[in-house]
Each structure stands twice: as C-alpha cells, then as structure tokens.
Design a protein that fits this description.
globular, 6-stranded antiparallel sheet, disordered C terminus, single chain, about 450 residues, alpha+beta
Length: about 450
C-alpha cells in the first residue's frame, strides 16, 4: 500500500503544480503578470516564425530574421525584469517541470504502460562472423580492441578495407559468403547503414544478428538498450546472450533498421559538399528546398492500421521509421520504445509559411505535422526519381517508393544484461492523474470496486 500512497501523492503534487502554473500569473495581475506571460508566449511564437524566415531566406533577410529570432524572447525577458517579475517565468517553468515529473512518477506505478520485451534462450553461436569498419565512430574498433576481443571469443572477423572510398567492399556479399561457409551468426561493428544491409541477409536466412555499437550515433543500438559508450560490452552476447525478435523496414528493396527520410534532409545529404561542411551546405540548400523552388514535389500515401488511407500532399519532409518514434515527450524524442510492433512510424512536415512554423510549437496537434503509424507508405514524386536517405545513406530511387515493414523478421542476439535498456515512460494523461489522485490508496473500498478503478 505504500507504493499506492506514493502514487496518490505524486498525482496530487502533479495536479497542484499544474494549478499553481495557472494561479501564479493571476496572483501577479496587478503588476502585469498575466499580460507579461501572454507577451512571453507571443515572443516564442515570433521567434519560431523568424527561424522559418531565417531558413528560407538568404543574405541580409536571413540575418535580420536571425536577429528577430533571438531578440523576441530577449525583449520579453527584459519586460519581466522592468516589472520586477523576472522570477515569474522561471517559477512557471519549474512548476510545469515538477508537474510533468510527478505526473509521470504517479503513472509509472500503474503498470498499464509497461510492456515486457520477450527474450528467447538460445545456444551461443559456434561460428560467428563479424564485419568491422575500422573508421566508423572515429576509430572505435581499434580504440576498444574489438577485433582481438571478438577473436578471443571464437568469432571470425573481417576488417573492411576503407582505403578505397570509390570502390567500397560489398558487405552484403561478404555476409552471404560467410553463411555459405557455415557461419551461424552475423554481426556488424559500424554505422546503421551497414547494420541494415547485413541485418537483411541475416533475416533472409533466419540466423541471429549481433549489433556492436561502434558507429557514430548508434540509434539502432540505443533502442536495443545496448551500451553506446563501450561497444566491447556488446560482444558479451557471444557467450552470455539472449535473442529478441525485431522488425525490419524496407524502402523498395533497401532495408533500414532506423528510418528512410524523404524531402529536404534527403536532398541535402545527396550533396557532395555535405560530408565536408554539413552546416554550410544545409543552410545553402534549405531556402529552395523548403519553399519548393528546388527538388520534386512529393506525395505520401499512408496505409493506416485500420482507418482510411492518409495523403500528405507536398510535404517538405517525410520520415518513415521502423516502428514509431516518441513524439509526446521531449526526453524521448529520437527514441523508439519498441521495435516489434509490426508498424511503420510516419512523421510528415508541411509548413506553408511563418505562421504554420510557429504552430509547430503545438507539437503533434500542429496542423502542419502528421504523426501516424502505418503498414505501408508510398512516396511519389512529380519527377521520375525520389531522393532518399536510408539509415543516413544517400540514394536516388525510381518513383514511387514503397516503404513496408516485415514484422519479427530479425533475430537480434543481445547481452543478457544490457545496462542501457531505457525505462518505458507512460504518456501524461490528466484524466488518469485525476482518477489516481482521488482513488488510489482508498483501502476501504471493496476489492471488486478497486479492480474496476485500476482497469
């Protein structure tokens, strides 16, 4: 019952903090607190609109927009200071942060959001074959001694020849050849693009796949709960590991473990100058891409998971992911809590002006943002080809491009103890919080009534 009492008080603290967030400006109304809060909110919207202008303009117009983006919230802060209410915005932020935190603490105890990933006990591999990119992640293969450690554990390791960038080795062919020679596990120490190519071969032949977090960002490894700071810990799966089944995405015939991106980002990464100077190249190309003065006009048709198809017409960007990314929690952005739901995540952005850019502050409720799940997504173009970024690798594919998901296609072998497994966070639902604050811990209620309250 102590745990129930903690939930009750956490829910009450959350609701109280949210209420104080509203009451605090009203209490300072004689000093202009309410007006200043409204001005502060307006300044953030103006800043977002100015950022849109900065991204879609060049020269002095871009510079002026950048100044406005910084000056608008700065002016609002100055007004708070003049009114001797500089403490008010910081108090409101602290109260809201406390409300969100205590709300999630309360809801975390309900267990209704917790989904256990199924792990399978399988014998360790006898003839593991690992492909390692010595340049990936700034040289993590050598830094952590991955080749020697893997060979000590009985694996056969192939170091990619990175001295010929114009003629890279075919990792798909290497993986197939290893299977022909009797390999019973395939693994990769490298970027997510390489992971996807070898993972597709492993899925095709139904052999386990080992992810070694030796890339730069390691998004796939992160969502598997692997240690991204020390990739050598991933090798523990060779001797003391379990298997999990995860999905695999495809853009036409090209596999992806993370996502396939269309639109502005996909066009930017096609530029030869992008790898040498990412920021300058992006700023040079965005004005024409965001205003549709350059590049194809896209249409994305989303085949949902039960409802009618959704059509996203002329978006600036479409991201199709292997399972959906979190969009309801800033701390969870860029993460996927599950990789086995059997659905694609779809994020589409269509902004037609500064006002819609400011509206993106509403998150998933913004008119210009589409966030859904799907079984299939078809991206078409008014031109013959579509620029795509598949797990960060630049491609040009014939239109239309069909994205699909293959549920449970990939057997991933992971260490039994994975310190990086993230705790699943529940969505913040005020109705459930009110219910918890009012009912949790009332031991006088009949057990049947308590069961109904928890359902």
């Amino acid at each position: 019952m102590r745990a129930h009492a903690r939930q009750r008080w956490a829910a009450r603290a959350s609701l109280t903090s949210a209420g104080l967030t509203v009451i605090a400006p009203l209490a300072t109304a004689p000093s202009g607190g309410v007006a200043l809060v409204l001005i502060g909110a307006l300044s953030i919207a103006v800043s977002m609109a100015a950022l849109w202008w900065a991204l879609t303009r060049r020269g002095w117009l871009r510079a002026c927009a950048g100044v406005v983006a910084v000056a608008a919230p700065g002016a609002a802060i100055a007004l708070f200071a003049v009114a001797h209410l500089l403490w008010l915005p910081f108090l409101l932020l602290a109260l809201w942060a406390l409300s969100v935190w205590t709300g999630k603490v309360a809801l975390s105890g309900t267990r209704s959001h917790v989904v256990q990933v199924v792990e399978y006990e399988t014998p360790p591999p006898a003839r593991a074959f690992l492909i390692m990119n010595p340049q990936s992640g700034g040289g993590k293969v050598e830094q952590f001694g991955l080749k020697a450690k893997a060979e000590e554990l009985g694996a056969r390791v192939h170091l990619l020849d990175t001295g010929r960038p114009d003629a890279p080795e075919d990792v798909t062919a290497l993986a197939r050849a290893a299977l022909d020679e009797g390999a019973d596990l395939l693994g990769v120490a490298g970027g997510d693009g390489t992971q996807a190519l070898v993972a597709a071969v492993a899925a095709e032949h139904d052999v386990p796949f080992l992810v070694i977090s030796a890339g730069t960002r390691n998004h796939f490894a992160m969502d598997l709960g692997l240690d991204r700071n020390d990739p050598s810990t991933c090798l523990e799966a060779l001797t003391d590991g379990v298997e999990v089944r995860v999905d695999l995405g495809f853009a036409d015939g090209h596999p992806f473990v993370n996502n396939a991106s269309f639109g502005a980002y996909a066009a930017v990464v096609q530029s030869p100058a992008y790898r040498d100077d990412k920021v300058r190249t992006t700023l040079d190309l965005l004005p024409e891409l965001l205003t549709h003065e350059r590049g194809p006009l896209l249409t994305a048709r989303v085949a949902g998971t039960g409802g009618p198809d959704i059509v996203i017409d002329t978006p600036q960007a479409v991201l199709v992911s292997n399972n959906p990314y979190r969009t309801d929690d800033i701390a969870g952005l860029g993460r996927r809590e599950r990789l086995d739901l059997g659905v694609l995540g779809v994020l589409g952005v269509k902004v037609e002006g500064a006002a819609q850019a400011a509206e993106l502050l509403l998150g998933r409720y913004a008119e210009g943002l589409t966030a859904v799940t799907a079984r299939q997504v078809v991206v078409d173009s008014d031109k013959g080809d579509v620029e795509v970024g598949v797990d960060g690798e630049a491609m040009v594919l014939p239109a239309p491009v069909r994205c699909r998901i293959q549920p449970g296609a990939l057997r991933v072998r992971v260490p039994r103890n994975r310190p990086g497994v993230p705790a699943v966070k529940p969505p913040l639902e005020w109705r459930r919080l009110r219910k918890l604050a009012a009912t949790v811990g009332r031991t006088a209620l009949p057990k049947s009534r308590q069961r109904r309250l928890w359902s």
